[in-house]
Prior knowledge:
alpha+beta, HIT family, subunit A, 3-stranded mixed beta sheet
Amino acid sequence: MPELRHDPIQKRWVIIATERGRRPSDFVRLEPEQSSGFCPFDEGNEDKTPPEVLALRPENTKPNTPGWAVRVVPNKFPALRIEGELDRAGEGIYDKMNGIGAHEVVIESPQHDLNLGDQPIEHFQKIMQVYQMRLKDLKKDTRFRYILIFKNQGVTAGASLAHPHTQIIATPVTPRTVAMELESARQHYELKERCLFCDILKQELEQGDRIVTQVDGMVAYTPFASRFPFEVFVTPIEHSHDFAELTDKGLLALSRCMKDVLARLKGALNDPPYNFMLHTSPNTKSQARRSTYWTSLPYDFHWHFEIIPRLVRIAGFEWGTGFYINPTPPEEAARYLREVEIT
């Protein structure tokens, strides 16, 4: 019997189509190959990108030259522009503002063919540190209300270049998906004086059937109302609202947990294309906000990574209703992932 499951974070219903039950092998398909020609992200091509805004490199090397470990550059074709003012205005019933923001690319490694999940743990941690450094720096700009860190791995997931990279986009408004999470968290806290995410984690850890792995205080689990097959959330067990505040010890634990999950997805699903995104605290120093808007934020929100393998397509029913149809129950997905042998 199919099930309708409600997500208390996004307040949406998901259809778990148990009668369609699909195993990992049912999703295996060929991913379109990306061009193997010239790559502007390769080491030695530093002059082919905009000047770097951050790079982990030895002190004796000059900016925008070879020798870096992780490099951050402005996106050559940005979705939003960093120069200018918002100039908020109304147009009849509508609202508008200038397309102000930041759009950056984190080039994860000089190695063109070494994907994030295959990086040594020490390098994985450096990449996480760079995420944190850029998040802290971009929050200094009070025009930006939210900074989203996200990764598109593979053509199907939206990557235009094969070289492993992550993107960062700072926006002058809170994205709708994040705004719903923030509102749900605030309402839950006002009602129960507890973090919604902590309550969910407590139940998941007690039940255990949707837990994928636990590593040094980090946990990965398949959400009860998973939108997609093998969707995984990674989050700290201990309450924490802001990824920017994570310690070096926490970054190492996160890196180990994320690497573990990516290895399990690769093993179970034959290295699928995927997206991941970090949902963390908004920029509480941004301009033009209600004075009490984020009063309880340090207590009610809980940062997390969402990892979504791109195994199914969104079609008319999903677009027309906002429902998602997931053919693999999250309990089954978690079991398959737990059983993967990783080295």
